[in-house]
Automatic annotation (TrEMBL):
Pfam families: PEMT (PF04191). GO terms for molecular function: phosphatidyl-N-methylethanolamine N-methyltransferase activity. This is Phosphatidyl-N-methylethanolamine N-methyltransferase. It comes from Lasiosphaeria hispida. GO terms for cellular component: endoplasmic reticulum membrane; mitochondrial membrane. Residues 1-16, 38-49, 120-162 are lumenal. Residues 72-98, 184-213 are cytoplasmic. It is an enzyme of class 2 (transferase). S-adenosyl-L-methionine binds at residues 103-105, 185-186. It is a multi-pass membrane protein. Keywords: Endoplasmic reticulum, Lipid biosynthesis, Lipid metabolism, Membrane, Methyltransferase, Mitochondrion, Phospholipid biosynthesis, Phospholipid metabolism, S-adenosyl-L-methionine, Transferase, Transmembrane, Transmembrane helix. The keyword Acetylation does not apply.
């Protein structure tokens, strides 16, 4: 146990403040948007703040999430610069693997955004902006969370390009945080759409009843 701890501290400099800031930003972002989006769903506080326009409010949250993402990425890169490198993460194989992961990760993120649009990507369903039907084409036929897995791949790719073990540790945090977020988001979103289908069914029954009369 002592040897493992010493080995880890030799690979990662935990005394660097930039590492802690990066770890905080990684955990903060999905926590922030889940709390804000759920409050919006229950109280419509953002919609009211934006003059009653749910779409404008969603765009406002999207801008905030995007900006926080840029800050998180900046802090991650800064943290990697302050960390020690390791020979096993340097050379042609890690470099090519890093570029490949970045390319695939960005492909998942960009194609997901293209399929969903701005409101679909940035929690529009919490604002009452629902899609007509579930998206099943690429990349959603590969994974049900392409934004999250694509982002994780990009973090991993960047850590390999820098050759920093700390990047692997932070990437593991990214994956864990996203997996936790999925456990909260997927059931909640499914409940939103299930509620809509129930309302549609009730409306359909009322229409059928009027026709019979």
């Amino acid at each position: 146990m002592s040897f493992s701890l010493e080995t880890l501290t030799g690979l990662v400099d935990f005394n660097q403040q930039s590492l802690l800031l990066s770890a905080f930003a990684i955990a903060f972002n999905p926590t922030f948007w889940n709390i804000v989006a759920r409050r919006e769903y229950r109280t419509k506080f953002l919609t009211r703040a934006f003059g009653g326009s749910a779409q404008t409010a969603c765009y406002g949250l999207a801008a905030a999430i995007f900006s926080l993402g840029l800050l998180r990425d900046f802090l991650y890169e800064r943290a990697l610069r302050d960390q020690p490198s390791h020979p096993l993460l340097q050379g042609d194989l890690p470099t090519y693997s890093g570029y490949t992961l970045l390319a695939l990760g960005n492909l998942l993120v960009i194609s997901s955004t293209w399929q969903l649009g701005i409101t679909g990507t940035f929690l529009g369903d919490y604002f009452g902006i629902l899609m007509d039907s579930m998206v099943t084409g690429f990349p959603f036929n590969v994974t049900n969370a392409p934004m999250y897995y694509g982002s994780t791949m990009s973090f991993l790719g960047t850590s390999l390009l820098y050759g920093k073990p700390a990047g692997l540790l932070l990437t593991a945090e990214v994956l864990i945080v996203y997996l936790v977020a999925i456990q909260f988001e997927n059931p909640f979103t499914a409940g939103i759409y299930a509620k809509r289908e129930q309302q549609r069914a009730k409306l359909g029954n009322k229409v059928e009843g009027k026709k019979e009369l």
